[in-house]
Amino acid sequence: MLPDKDGVCGGGCQGTFGEDPSVSLFREYLRLKTVHPEPDYDAALRFLDRIAEELGLPIKKIEVCPGRVVSVMTWEGTNPSLKTILLNSHTDVVPVYQEHWQHDAFSAVKDTEGNIYGRGTQDMKSVTIQYIQAIRTLKAAGKKLLRTVHLMFVPDEEVGGHKGMETFVKLPEFQELNIGFALDEGLANPTEAFTVFYGERNPWWITIHCPGSPGHGSRFVENTAAEKMRSIINSFLDFREKEKQRLNTSECFTLGDVTTVNMTMVKGGVAYNVIPAEMDVSFDMRIPPTVNLTEFEEQIKKWCNEAGEGITYQFAQKHMNQNLTSTDESDPWWNTFSTTCKAMNVTLKKEIFPAATDSRFIRAVGIPAIGFSPMNQTPILLHDHNEYVNEQVFLRGIQVYEKLVLALANVPALPCDA
Ligand SMILES: CSCC[C@H](NC=O)C(=O)O
Ligand SMILES: [Zn+2]
Ligand SMILES: [Zn+2]
């Protein structure tokens, strides 16, 4: 059967004619609907089983929570007692507004320029397949690695990682992997450079509960929930404005260097003419690792006290760990990473990740982790409509990982290995 105009083979086969097999495999993986709110994780698990068999690697499955399985493929090194290298990726993707997409978000359409469209093309199914294909190439070339490499495939990153990495890092099965250094996701970069992330802002999700006096909607009732909520909103959004301005005060600043605050939900009220007895307002805050978190929470308490009586708050996310991964040239992991990139003419831009990834749980247990999705010359479209990556950019990323894995897994024994 011939491919249709989108280059998708309609006859049930996975590849397209004349296409690089890595691209075909990527497109096949993009078609699995591991999309929230009900990701088809079974499809991903079956896919990974097949890959493990193709690569000739053992695969372990750890059910960290009911229906939430972490898979780990392991390529043993020649010295398995040394600290290992982790290549981490999540299998889930965020939902789409299909009506805003040029192509079906789960068909993996490739246009005439080689742009592949689909949810997960950037976040982060590309990286998953790049890891797999890099390992496949290295194995086929008969390479031997000193250190063991683990490929880890984790569920539920997009919904906070509670039933994924957050739980898994605390299990003995994670400790047994004996990880010394981890790679995880980053962001695309629209320029010739590649961005790498050595830390993340701390996500704090807060709901502020404002109780107040109820009454008839025709009266000047004192002490209303709405007046308190207005004060809260003003405090948070005034601070937001200041941080927004601060971002522009230095050319060196990126989103990762300032605190963002966004009002994301409001709740309250039962009728037009009934003054509500309570109102809730929620904010998504992202706090750079340089901010003193105790002082920041004191500021929030102050805003609540100033807003009136009886105000309480609750966190839905309150990540407290502020570990950073060393990017000092004397650090053997970073040095290997950066010199390998340099040798490939891959220019790196070091930043703090503006959102949250599973790296925060890895760093929190003391393991250095670098966020890196090798996509340059690509607009940042994760979670956006028409997410895509170009096949040439994708293919170059595989070569980048081949070199990185080879170099990192051959870092000679270190003091931390003892
Ligand atoms: C804070 S838990 C949610 C994690 C999510 N990660 C990717 O987008 C994020 O909102 O950053
Ligand atoms: Zn992601
Ligand atoms: Zn995401």
From TrEMBL:
Domain called Peptidase M20 dimerisation: residue spans: 198-309
EC number(s) given by UniProt: 3.5.1.14
Top-level class of the enzyme under EC nomenclature: hydrolase
Essential cofactor(s): Zn(2+)
Main location: cytoplasm
Location in or out of the cell: Cytoplasm
Molecular-function GO term, any one: aminoacylase activity
Entry keyword set: Cytoplasm, Hydrolase, Metal-binding, Zinc
Species per Swiss-Prot/TrEMBL record: Umbra pygmaea
Family affiliation: Belongs to the peptidase M20A family.
Protein name (record): N-acyl-aliphatic-L-amino acid amidohydrolase
InterPro entries reported in the protein's UniProt record: Aminoacylase-1_M20A, ArgE/DapE_CS, Bact_exopeptidase_dim_dom, N-acyl_aa_amidohydrolase, Peptidase_M20, Peptidase_M20_dimer
Residues reported in the UniProt entry to bind Zn(2+) 1: H90, D123, E185
Cofactor binding summary note: Binds 2 Zn(2+) ions per subunit.
Residues that bind Zn(2+) 2: D123, E158, H383
GO cellular component, one term: cytoplasm
